[in-house]
């Protein structure tokens, strides 16, 4: 069944600028392993938290792995959640992918504090052993801002986890990649990515002796928990206006929906994690499962856009890999 078009304004803006979002052959499979998380951050677009029950089952994991095996265009598996590591099949998933496609890049989107939770003591070593790239949330290098957004004590836990990763070689030119993710505290656009990365590197090295590879700046998407916060503060309209006013045509080519397939905990396909949370399926066709599709056939599928897409195209642009323009 086709889902109603909620995207006129953004699409019209693209047309007006002579631009088009075109899907390429997918190279990234982003897998949402579930909404369970040990944190409950105020900006979370997944509404994730300790009480969530949605978790990808072992059977679905196997079907996803089978699909990866027969999809040679996929060179990156991006594991997200929730805290993806809290899925009981997390390690098995990685082992199975490594067995069938040893060369692919596997990314763990890690909130850092999970590495310190009871039962996860060997997680960092596991990630290092299987060459999993860590992309870790770290919204500031100052404790007040991190704790405000992610919860009391999260800053100290994040620092301890980063030290643990550094001790294993992560972020130290050893081939084990450690990237950090910044998103603004509140209803503003991220600052310049390169300059902020420099500040982060200086501050984390001087204060804690911590090293990392890259910093990605990501714009807060006005959906889910962050939208609730904006509404509570009476800032939803002005934030949306900010995104529209800062539309940047140069961001279009790098948008993640052009080369990514996003799959939810039940195996349904979406153009990106944001559309997944909004229930806006890939190509606006509901209830299609990853294993029903061929990766080559996805090249010509339409991308389901909405006005939330302004969140990816404002300022320097924003994607899972950070800023898109400069
Ligand atoms: S933002 Fe990340 S760490 Fe925070 S609640 Fe959401 S999934 Fe968990
Ligand atoms: S939210 Fe961003 S990634 Fe998703 S479809 Fe819109 S522009 Fe693409």
Structural overview:
- With 326 residues, this protein is of the alpha/beta class.
- It has a single domain, classed as Aldolase class I (TIM Barrel).
- Helix content is 33%, strand content 11%.
- The chain has eleven helices and eight strands.
- Helix 4 links the parallel strand 3 and strand 4.
- Helix 2 packs parallel to helix 3.
- The longest helix has 16 residues, at 193-208.
- The model is unreliable at 1-7 (pLDDT under 50).
- It binds iron/sulfur cluster (2 copies).
Topology of helices and strands:
Blueprint: H1 8-16, E1 28-32, H2 58-69, E2 76-80, H3 90-100, E3 105-110, H4 123-129, E4 133-137, H5 143-150, H6 154-167, E5 178-182, H7 193-208, E6 215-217, H8 224-232, H9 236-245, E7 260-263, E8 269-270, H10 273-278, H11 310-313
Parallel strand pairs: 1-2, 1-7, 2-3, 3-4, 4-5, 5-6
Antiparallel strand pairs: 7-8
Helix pairs in contact: 2-3
The chain binds iron/sulfur cluster (2 copies).
One iron/sulfur cluster binds next to helix 10.
List keywords for this structure.
326 residues; alpha/beta; TIM Barrel; eight-stranded mixed beta sheet; 11 helices; 8 strands; globular; disordered N terminus; binds iron/sulfur cluster
Can I get a quick summary?
The protein is of the alpha/beta class. It is built from eleven helices and eight strands. The model is unreliable at 1-7 (pLDDT under 50).
